[in-house]
Amino acid sequence: MATTAALAQPPAPLVDAAGLSRPRRARLPVPRPLRRLAGPLLLVALWQLLGSLGEIDPRVLATPGQVLAAAWDLARTGELASNLLASLVRVAQGLAIGVTLGVVLAVAAGLFRLGEDLVDSTMQVLRSLPVLGLLPLVIIWFGVGEEPKVALVVFATVFPVYLNTYAGIRGVDGRLVESAKVLGLGRLALIRHVVLPGAVPGFLVGLRFALTSSWLVIIIAEQLNATSGIGYLMNQAQAWYRTDIIVLGLLIYGLLGLGADAVVRLLERRLLRWRRGFDGN
């Protein structure tokens, strides 16, 4: 009873150096999105400060204020929207083909040993090839239009999706498979209710890498024989030493990658409600 009474008592007030008690201050919780933005905002503030003090030459690196002014000018003339749309269309087309192809190949190699023998060794060889090193060959195959840019995105996205989805299929717990067989599930039901759901986490990891790779590739592809796109805009700005437009293009690519990662996180919360993992608390 004494222990219970002691636990029920409120915490003792804080005591200062003079021996006087003072009330304990309640801390206001800071929203997590605000905490995540604190680091980038401090970096931008320091960047602006150094530029305003003349410590950074605008011809070498434009200040955030100059970047915002360039964004306003390009948005007002419509150049920013048209070039951004061109980049989004190319990435969307390449992702649609690359992700679909990666999933199909991963399912074929993960579910069937013959598929593994025919597909996995070939994919392991091809994935070691440098994507940008294929650019001259892709131009010879597809010309200098839209096809080579989309093809490079496909090549950059198919392998992360394949490797992680294949690993997810083969990493399904064997005890679950045995339990499903004991319950009388046939092969198709086993694949549908056990194997494929168990491979979803691996697929989402591969999708996240694929989204990042798509933007890394398109920024280079659009600077070669392109007439539109954010990469084309940056290439044109390089000729006039417009570092404000170049930095703006890089920021757009970064924000697009951040948005794509947020979409994958949303999918993870929706599709993986059954899985509870460590969240850093």
From TrEMBL:
Gene Ontology CC annotation, any one: plasma membrane
Alphabetical GO biological process terms: alkanesulfonate transmembrane transport
Domain ABC transmembrane type-1, residue spans: 80-264
The keyword Nucleus is annotated on this UniProt entry: no
Membrane topology: Multi-pass membrane protein
InterPro entries: MetI-like, MetI-like_sf
Record's keyword annotation contains Transmembrane helix: yes
Family as reported in the entry's similarity comment: Belongs to the binding-protein-dependent transport system permease family.
The protein's name in its UniProt record: Sulfonate transport system permease protein
